Automatic annotation (TrEMBL):
<keyword id="KW-1133">Transmembrane helix</keyword>
<dbReference type="InterPro" id="IPR052983">
    <property type="entry name" value="MFS_Riboflavin_Transporter"/>
</dbReference>
<feature type="transmembrane region" description="Helical">
    <location>
        <begin position="221"/>
        <end position="242"/>
    </location>
</feature>
<feature type="transmembrane region" description="Helical">
    <location>
        <begin position="276"/>
        <end position="299"/>
    </location>
</feature>
<feature type="transmembrane region" description="Helical">
    <location>
        <begin position="14"/>
        <end position="36"/>
    </location>
</feature>
<feature type="transmembrane region" description="Helical">
    <location>
        <begin position="249"/>
        <end position="270"/>
    </location>
</feature>
<keyword id="KW-0812">Transmembrane</keyword>
<feature type="transmembrane region" description="Helical">
    <location>
        <begin position="311"/>
        <end position="329"/>
    </location>
</feature>
<keyword id="KW-0813">Transport</keyword>
<feature type="transmembrane region" description="Helical">
    <location>
        <begin position="48"/>
        <end position="66"/>
    </location>
</feature>
<protein>
    <recommendedName>
        <fullName>Major facilitator superfamily (MFS) profile domain-containing protein</fullName>
    </recommendedName>
</protein>
<dbReference type="GO" id="GO:0016020">
    <property type="term" value="C:membrane"/>
</dbReference>
<keyword id="KW-0472">Membrane</keyword>
<feature type="transmembrane region" description="Helical">
    <location>
        <begin position="185"/>
        <end position="201"/>
    </location>
</feature>
<feature type="transmembrane region" description="Helical">
    <location>
        <begin position="103"/>
        <end position="122"/>
    </location>
</feature>
<dbReference type="InterPro" id="IPR036259">
    <property type="entry name" value="MFS_trans_sf"/>
</dbReference>
Length: 351
């Protein structure tokens, strides 16, 4: 819905587009993770991290096709930007700009078709289906097992150091109202928001920054396409890693890697298109891990029964970040140039 409405929003104002495509679309994308995850955990309860990675490969894989479609629909002649400032380049040619609103209708139609197909394919295991023998046990993927006095508190995010394996125990199933009373919810909410900030910059500004030295729009699109392939494969990797070393340690690896890679991003363009190409692909690989790890953290911390609603609450931070990021990024760009923008990713993940 947000994609279709963006056809009208972009012709109204930038603020309308940010609210429609950024906030509403971001919320919809976050909610889309909810329903399939419990079904996956029922099919592969012993390897929920790996299974979730396979599931979300499709989410990133779709962008491979979409990325190429957008560029070749809007700029089929590989026209170069004709407005250049000290920090960025822009298109002003009508043959490019006039096609922008129409692409939202194309993307909306394709997305609707794919979503209908996906909804028809989602189902829980039925009698006679081949599944792992431990089906029926509760997944306790991210909680360190320890003896504690009886209490009404569910497992804590700070204990996320156990491997994502199935245990024959009954984790507490928290509903959304109970989740809102837990500090773990706010830890995950803030952490996801800070990571999502970096994802927004990578997705929306890699071409704008790259265009300062690379005047080939199709090459820049190819960088994005290869990056989306890396995103799809990386989700399988991050899910497997979470099964092996645990959610907490994997999240620490993710945040630390993002901090280092983002801090050196500015200088990669000075070394040439090759290094810049590789750097964008690598940082895309790393940032994509959040789409696996935070859903798994929510599943293990708050239980499976109300997982879709609970993760929907966590994903509301994307609305805030999607609305706040554009003016913040522009302010950083005006005050500290691209160095400040990329370092802000490292700082946000370091927090």
């Amino acid at each position: 819905g947000a994609t279709f409405l963006s056809y009208f929003a972009i012709q109204d104002s930038m603020a309308s587009l940010i609210i429609t495509f950024g906030a509403v679309g971001g919320l919809g994308a976050g909610l889309a993770y909810g329903p399939p995850m419990p079904a996956v955990s029922k099919w592969l309860p012993r390897r929920v991290g790996l299974a979730s990675g396979v599931l979300l490969m499709g989410f990133g894989g779709g962008a491979v096709f979409y990325n190429e479609l957008v560029t070749f629909y809007i700029n089929p002649g590989n026209i170069k930007p004709d407005v250049t400032t000290q920090r960025t380049s822009y298109f002003s040619q009508s043959e490019v700009l006039d096609r922008v609103p129409e692409i939202f209708l194309v993307l909306g139609g394709l997305t609707l078709c794919l979503q209908v197909i996906g909804l028809l394919l989602i189902r829980d295991p039925q009698e006679g289906d081949e599944i792992e023998e431990v089906l029926g046990t509760e997944l306790k993927p991210i909680v360190k097992e320890e003896v504690i006095p009886p209490s009404n508190d569910a497992q804590s995010v700070k204990d996320l150091d156990a491997k994502a394996v199935s245990e024959k125990s009954e984790p507490e199933q928290l509903n959304p109202l109970e989740v809102l009373k837990r500090k773990d919810f706010y830890i995950l909410w803030v952490a996801l928001g800070l990571n999502h900030y970096g994802y927004i910059i990578k997705n929306n500004y890699y071409k704008e920054f790259g265009a300062l030295s690379i005047d080939d729009d199709h090459l820049l699109t190819s960088i994005g396409t290869v990056s989306t392939v890396a995103v799809s494969i990386s989700r399988l990797f991050w899910g497997f890693l979470a099964d092996v070393i645990g959610i907490k340690l994997t999240i620490m690896v993710l945040l630390g890697s993002t901090c280092v890679l983002a801090s050196f991003w500015t200088w990669t363009l000075l070394a040439g298109p090759g290094l810049y190409f590789a750097w964008v692909v690598i940082i895309s690989w790393v940032l994509a891990g959040a789409f696996i790890l935070f859903p798994l953290a929510a599943l293990g911390t708050f239980g499976q029964q109300h997982y879709a609603s609970n993760y929907g609450l966590i994903s509301t931070v994307q609305i805030v970040v999607n609305l706040a990021s554009p003016p913040l990024i522009r302010a950083l760009l005006d005050s500290f140039s691209w160095f400040g923008v990329f370092v802000s990713i490292g700082v946000s993940n370091l927090l």
